Amino acid sequence: MAAQAAARTIIENCAIATVDANDTEYASGYVVVAGNRIESIGAGKAPEGLENVVRRIDGTGHLVTPGLVNTHHHFYQWITRGLATDHNLFNWLVALYPTWARIDEPMVKAAAQGSLAMMARGGVTTAMDHHYVYPKGSGDLSGAIIGAASDMGVRFTLARGSMDASEKDGALPPDFAVETLEGALAATEETVKKHHDASFDAMTQVAVAPCSPFSVSTALMKQGAELARRLGVRLHTHGSETVEEEQYCKELFGMGPTDYFESTGWLGSDVWMAHCVHMNDSDIAAFARTGTGVAHCPSSNARLAAGIARVPDMLKAGVPVGLGVDGTASNESGELHTELRNALLINRLGAHREAALNARQALRLGTYGGAQVLGRADQIGSLEAGKLADLVMWKIDGLGHSTIADPVTAIVFGAAAPVTLSLVNGKPVVEDNHLITVDEDVIAREARAEAQRLARIVAQG
Predict the structure, then answer these.
(1) pLDDT band at 426 (very low <50, low <70, confident <90, very high)
(2) How far apart (Å, rounded) are the C-alpha atoms in residues 374 and 272?
(3) What is the pLDDT of residues 381-391, one digit of tens each?
(4) DSSP-derived pairing of the beta strands 427-431 and 124-131
(5) How confident is the model at residue 183 (pLDDT cuts 50, 70, 90)?
(6) To 5 degrees, how large is the angle CA 275–CA 77–CA 368?
(7) Residues whose CB is less than 8 angstroms from the CB of residue 226 and which lie 6 or more positions away in sequence, other chains included
(8) Which of 106, 189, 256, 336 is 20 to 30 A from 343 in CA distance terms?
(9) Alpha carbon of residue 313 to chain centroid
């Protein structure tokens, strides 16, 4: 018996920005989705006579783009938003580590749901979380995070983080907030083996992700890199975020962050770093030479006064760059689609920088660039036949965008555009600007309750 043809969804009469290698765009075009793949895309009306069409959508007044890809986040921070609002990075960490060290599984689950919901409602189809706080006896935190992403229906990468350096070692985290070297490596390997899916249409992947040079031993950095490559997964950490970090590395290791990363095996096409604000020409050249990726987090960098990453210079050199929300304790909005605009504006600050980034470069950072950084550019990040059906319909004929003629300019320069439809793996996650896979009100209540419980625990000492 012949196999049943995949169900088809047709979107037509919409503007389309494919973000393919040629930046192909259609003023009025169509997308045909068959199962979880993009079957065809082009100008004008969809082909006639297609079988098993289960849904036909009139996209008039909309722009269709690839789904947004988030490349750096800390979900647990959703329940500690609005604290330490006038601190730089190191002071902010010192202020919040004692609170974060008391999280447990219900808190992490509620925080993950809140973080994911805010992103998904704003067009994110692939999320990631760099979770590195694993207090003793706190439960299955990785499982809780992955479960929340599965329930939401978004594609997901867990960067299984770790810290093994604490105050007693001259580092920032409290002593009770870190793991041992052996414990961190074993737990990370277990997480990869249990949850990582290497298939083309994987919904869950895992990366090895020691937290940062100032909370991790050199042994964990080196052995973490070896572990990731033995298991065939990617590597992620924070890098060159602040001037203080650069000074810390020079004092402790006798070299700057990029040289330190190279000495520990942490430059390569399977690596991406968060922030990379303080990079000189040599650092950028090293990233370009090795294919090391960058997660650019403009709002968080501004919130913590870390500085302005040299994104235009990185792109010119050939460094893969994506966008990141970063943790919601340093980017309280928790949204990625606003980072398109912020990346463009922040990188134009300074004299004669009006062309540092343009609207289409910003959209590419949030889509294809993110897919590159996560190692999935052959699967997601652009609208092309054969790729996975992760896409977003942005409504651009309302008050906020109706007088901006160019659709891409409308969603990047304009107000945050409502999401009429978001598909992940060919399945709807957002309809008419509302999540349909989960109850937003329930998520908000649960997150609020867990934030209050955490505050009580901290107050009790």
Answers:
(1) very high
(2) 8
(3) 999 999 999 99
(4) unpaired
(5) very high
(6) 40
(7) 265
(8) 256
(9) 21
For 282, the token pair is 């040599």
156-178 average pLDDT score: 88
62-66 and 391-395: which strand pairing? Answer: antiparallel
Classify 120 as helix, strand or coil: helix
Instruction: Answer for the pair 45, 12: CB distance below 8 angstroms, yes or no.
Output: yes
How far apart are alpha carbons 240 and 221 in whole angstroms? 15
Residue 422 bridge partners (DSSP) = 392, 430
Tokens of 303: 């919130």
Give the number of other Cβ atoms within 10 Å of residue 160's Cβ: 31
Residue 2 pLDDT:
46
Handedness of CA 362, 365, 367, 369 (dihedral sign): positive
Question: What are φ and ψ of residue 106, in 5° steps?
Answer: -60, -40
CB 20 within 8 A of CB 35: no
Measured distance CA(64)–CA(392) in Å, rounded: 6
d(CA 449, CA 363): 36
Query: Angle at CA 415, nearest 5°, toward 414 and 419?
Result: 110
| Cα–Cα distance for residue pair 427/9, rounded to 1 Å | 10
What's the CA gap between 428 and 114, in Å, rounded? 19
- SS3 at position 174: coil
Q: What angle do CA 134, 135, 137 make, to 5 degrees?
A: 110
Q: Using CA atoms, how far apart are residues 420 and 59, in angstroms rounded to an integer?
A: 9
Separation between Cα atoms, residue 182 and residue 177, nearest integer Å: 15
Q: State the average pLDDT over residues 357-378.
A: 98
Average pLDDT over residues 389-415: 97
Task: Specify the long-range contacts of residues 442-446, CB closer than 8 Å, at least 24 apart.
Answer: 443/110, 443/113, 443/114, 443/117, 444/114, 446/110, 446/113
Cα gap 59→308, rounded to integer Å: 37
Contact 108, 132 (CB under 8 A): no
- Give the span between the Cα atoms of 411 and 65, in whole angstroms: 10
Residue with tokens 């690596």: 271
pTM recorded for the entire structure: 0.97
